[in-house]
Amino acid sequence: MSGRIIEVNEQVNFLRRLKYPDNAMTRAFLGDLVNPYVEIVLRQDLDKETFTCLEFTFFLRKTTYTQSRLRQGLRAIADLRTYSLPDGKKIWIADTIRRG
User: Fold this and answer.
1) Is this model's pTM higher than 0.70 or not?
2) What is the CA angle 43-69-62, rounded to 5?
3) Which residues have C-beta within 8 Å of that of residue 99, sequence separation ≥ 6?
4) Sequence-ordered alpha helix ranges (H) in the chain
5) Nearest to residue 93, comparing CAs of 44, 48, 35?
6) Residue 91's closest CA among 57, 42, 50, 41?
7) What are 44-86's pLDDT values in tens digits?
8) What was the pLDDT predicted at 89?
9) What structural domains and CATH numbers belong to the chain?
């Protein structure tokens, strides 16, 4: 998906967000999500037929975000996939992001 980055939260902590205690068992349970992530809101361009624009909120590893040199206000293309959290909820994860 492509669009403009309208918001970035660089302080994502899935342990706190999911209200899990910070211990070895919950860290193993969450796997890769214990690593630093950022939360990004990407807004697509206005659809001139429906006068709507979609927004997607997704998570990206902080190292990938830092290496991309993207920031709020810039256009980006992200490859999104769904990820099932241990509580059954689904979130969007981007493995890659680039200027677009």
Assistant:
1) yes
2) 80
3) 68, 70, 74, 75, 76, 77
4) 14-17, 24-30, 62-68
5) 35
6) 57
7) 999 899 999 999 999 999 999 999 999 999 999 999 999 998 8
8) 87
9) 2-99 (2.40.50)
